[in-house]
Amino acid sequence: MRDFPDDTRPDTVLTPSQLNTLARDLLEGAFPSIWVEGELGNVSRPSSGHLYFTIKDARAQVRCAMFRPKSSWLRFTPREGLRVLGRGRLTLYEARGEYQMVFDHLEEAGEGALRRAFDELKAKLAAEGLFDAERKRPLPRFARRVAVITSPTGAAVRDVLSVLSRRFPLVEADVLPVPVQGEGAAAQIVAMLQKAGAAQRYDVIVLARGGGSLEDLWAFNDERLARTIAASPVPVVSAVGHETDFSLSDFAADVRAPTPSVAAELLVPNRDDLLHRLRVLDARLRSLQLQRLRQAMQRADRAALRLNALRPRARLDMLCRRQADALRRLDAAWKRRLERERAHLRHADAVLRAAHPQRRITRLRERLAAIAQRPQSAIVRRLSKEALHLRGLARSLEAVSPLATVARGYSILRHEDGRIVRSVLDAAPGDRLSARLSDGELAVRVEAHDGDT
Question: Using CB atoms within 10 A of its CB, is residue 61 exposed (0-12), middle (13-18) or buried (19+)?
């Protein structure tokens, strides 16, 4: 081993592993958690389930890793060139002495910006008390009319209408069509919500939309929509996205449903449960009536015993007649009440049969067939209008066209390089020009102009 002079001998000699351990501790201590945004490269996912990649910009790149199970929870598929935003910690892989970043959260960069905007607006509205539980209203126990504000062609509207018709066919559900994503969707949802609230027709309003990314659901994170929901005179149920999706409309609404189907279940009772309850109440009513009848008969028997003990024959005969009359009236009243309850049950059964979903489907198919003719008529009218407009533009172009001037006997002079001769000073004797006439072109040569003698 080499001997060091006393003045150059180090106090501590480190092994490579010790040096890497110190470097790793310094990195992890200085950068416990940081956010990085850049472009994905060298994406690899071996059989272990871990995710390895680089994040780069125009001038540099960083080796990165994301270990299971967090790599399996990603809501997007990492691929080359995708711009991402992630949170992680800096560390050093001691075995190779490689500096790298280990991520615990990764998202598409655009969604990250939307998420920050969402969090800021949510905090602002929450501070104003817009989401307070005290201002939320309970849903009506039996909603007669329901407004469903959603896309008329999405799966959400089919789910809501299917559940409503299956659980309680007596409820009236109106679909108020609006776009549920894209530019201008939030403004149209706000307008339809205000219109539904002002109609004073509905017992409850449902905002429904299927699942999607944060960008797809962004129309329901509009500040004006959240304030309109909070100010609605009618209770509002928000059923936007899947169970794990949250929007500002969920927080502002009186009730948040995980899915559109669950929203429909919250609005109406199950008809089978209602029929069972009616049968239970009918049985209880019969039991109470029989119990009261027995009690009345027992009281009459005790009175008869007391009368017999006193032997007031005349009064006993009178009371017996009154008792018999009372029993007849009680029996008649019980039979009338029983018949009324049976008639009520028959009527309820007839109403439920009349509201069978198949009849409603038939009516809806007839309405759909009538509506299907409207787009074709609108297309024909629009094509006619556009044809008239095109003919007008053609006439306008023809009026200002230089070819129309040439047709009246004029010509257009050009140099060989295409420049137009507008003045005698633009041409010199000896120049070769082309003259454009209505039926072709002539090659001409300038002999002289007014400036020559």
Answer: middle
Rounded CA separation 136/130 (Å):
10
Q: How confident is the model at residue 452 (pLDDT cuts 50, 70, 90)?
A: very low
Burial category of 434 from C-beta neighbours within 10 Å (exposed 0-12, middle 13-18, buried 19 and up): middle
DSSP for 425-449 reads: GG--TT-EEEEEETTEEEEEE----
In angstroms, rounded to a whole number, what is the distance separating the alpha carbons of residues 427 and 425?
A: 5
In the block, tokens 């929007």 appear at 247
Mean pLDDT along residues 346-373: 78
Question: Which pLDDT value is given to residue 2?
Answer: 46
User: How far is the first Cα of the chain from the last one, in angstroms, to the nearest whole number?
Assistant: 109
Annotate 29-53 with b (16+ C-beta within 10 A) or e (fewer). Answer: eeeeeeebebbbeebeeeeeeebbb
User: Within 13 A of 436's CA, how many CA atoms are on the CB side?
Assistant: 15
In the block, tokens 């001998």 appear at 9
- Take residue 229 and report the two structure tokens written for it: 């929901």
Long-range contacts of 321-326 (CB under 8 A, 24+ apart): 326/296, 326/300
What is residue 58's three-state secondary structure?
coil
pTM recorded for the entire structure: 0.44
Q: Measured between alpha carbons, how far is residue 414 from residues 139, 404, 427, 431, 451 in Å? A: 81, 18, 10, 10, 20
> Tokens for 203?
């017992």
